[in-house]
Structures are given as C-alpha cells and as structure tokens.
Write a structure and sequence with these properties.
The complex is a heterodimer of chains A (112) and B (114).
Chain A lengths: L3 E2 L4 E5 L4 E7 L6 E7 L6 E7 L4 E4 L2 E6 L4 E6 L8 E8 L7 E2 L3 E6 L1
Parallel strand pairs in A: 2-11
Antiparallel strand pairs in A: 1-3, 3-8, 4-5, 4-9, 6-7, 7-8, 9-10, 9-11
Chain B lengths: L4 E3 L2 E4 L5 E6 L6 E8 L3 E9 L2 E5 L6 E5 L5 E5 L8 E8 L9 E2 L3 E5 L1
Parallel strand pairs in B: 2-11
Antiparallel strand pairs in B: 1-3, 3-8, 4-5, 4-9, 5-6, 7-8, 9-10, 9-11
The chains are: A mainly beta (112), B mainly beta (114).
Chain lengths: 112, 114
C-alpha cells in the first residue's frame, strides 16, 4: 500500500524553464510534507516543507503547493539549473518530527 | 557544524552473517531514524530512536534492530543477512521536538550481501 506516490519517474526540462514535480498521497492523517533532493551515493538533502495549514511555501527558486482536498502537492523549481539534476523525493509525516513516508522519487534532468 | 556521520560507507558481507552500522547525529539532535533504500522498494522507514528509546518502528522483520546511546549515537544491526538486505542504509537526525521538522540525512552505508 503506497501512501505517497510520485507518478512521474523522470522529467526532462530545459535550463531556465520551470520544473514541476507532482506527488499524491492517500493518508488523510498526514499533516506535514517535505521535499528532498538526492544525488547518487549521497543521502537526501532537505529542500522545502509545508504544513497542512498552508497551501503554499516559497524558498528562493523552490515553491511547494499543497491541495489538501485533492491530497496533492507539487514542487516548482524556477528557473531550473543544470545543478538541479537529481532525484527528488516527496515525503509526508503525521506529526512534525515523526517518521517519514517517501514517494518513489522523480529523476530530473536539466539540459543546458 | 558537523553533519550526520555514518560508518562505514561501504560494506560487503556474506549471506548468514550479521552486520552493525553506526550513525553519529548532529550535535544536539536527540532523534535518530534509519531508512533502507533499494531500487525496488524506494526509501523505507526502519525505526526511530529518541532519548535511547525506540519511538517508532517500520514493517521490517525482527532481524533488523537498533539502539541509541546516551550521547545520541545510534547503531543498527542486521542478523542472518539475506541477499535482499543489500541496500543503502540511511541514518537521519532531528532535534526531536514537535516544533522541528525535517530530518538531516547522512551519506549512508552501502551494504552488499553476497
């Protein structure tokens, strides 16, 4: 039972354009959502998070949108840079600091 | 400040053996979690320790165990290794308070079982 799903395993985007990564969840008890970026042979790096009481959170080039009624969140990266090429995971937790349930990841390739 | 440190980085073990992995959290972080990453199953939660007590546990067999010491360092043990235990094992630390969110991950230990 996959409670967090990233339906697009890969995404290719031109440098300077917008990257949009999507994530769906089924557990209505999730109230905290996070995005992580991962390079090969490294641990995931925290990017941005959002609480269920908000619908948008912005940090520099990264913006996360949450649609709680649709149980859907998305990560926008604007503008995309070649260094953004990595695997991106969305994760959810039922309480801040609790265990994280991860999606399967989306591999992003930003072409120069 | 120093990040989350995991040792060793790489490990090769034989089926049936046991293995112990180590994790030193960020100074001041009291919560340590362990995750397993495999190509087929993605990132899966193993367990979380807070103040030397297991606070959360994932759906892994009893061969997977862990502990946390008074200095918050944590170890994970896998007994009777199986080929399917080959994975990247990630440790993550967090201050463990409700107001805090997100975990800082280490670089992982790549375990290969042959």
């Amino acid at each position: 039972d996959q409670q967090v799903k990233q339906n697009s395993p890969s995404l290719s985007v031109q440098e300077g354009r917008i990257s949009i990564l999507n994530c769906d969840y089924t557990n209505s008890m999730f109230d905290y959502f996070l995005w992580y970026k991962k390079y090969p042979a490294e641990g995931p790096t925290f990017l941005i998070s959002i609480s269920s009481i908000k619908d948008k959170n912005e940090d520099g080039r990264f913006t996360v949108f949450l649609n709680k009624s649709a149980k859907h969140l998305s990560l926008h990266i604007v503008p995309s840079q070649p260094g953004d090429s990595a695997v991106y995971f969305c994760a959810a937790s039922e309480a801040a600091g609790n265990k994280l349930t991860f999606g399967g990841g989306t591999r992003v390739l930003v072409k120069p | 400040k120093a990040g989350v440190t995991q040792t060793p980085r790489y490990l090769i073990k034989t089926r049936g053996q046991q293995v112990t992995l180590s994790c030193s959290p960020i100074s001041g972080h009291r919560s340590v979690s362990w995750y397993q990453q495999t190509p087929g199953q993605g990132l899966q939660f193993l367990f979380e320790y807070f103040s030397e007590t297991q606070r959360n546990k994932g759906n892994f067999p009893g061969r997977f165990s862990g502990r946390q010491f008074s200095n918050s360092r944590s170890e994970m043990n896998v007994s009777t290794l199986e080929l399917g235990d080959s994975a990247l094992y990630l440790c993550a630390s967090n201050q463990g308070t409700v107001a805090n969110y997100g975990y800082t991950f280490g670089s992982g230990t790549r375990l290969t079982v042959v």
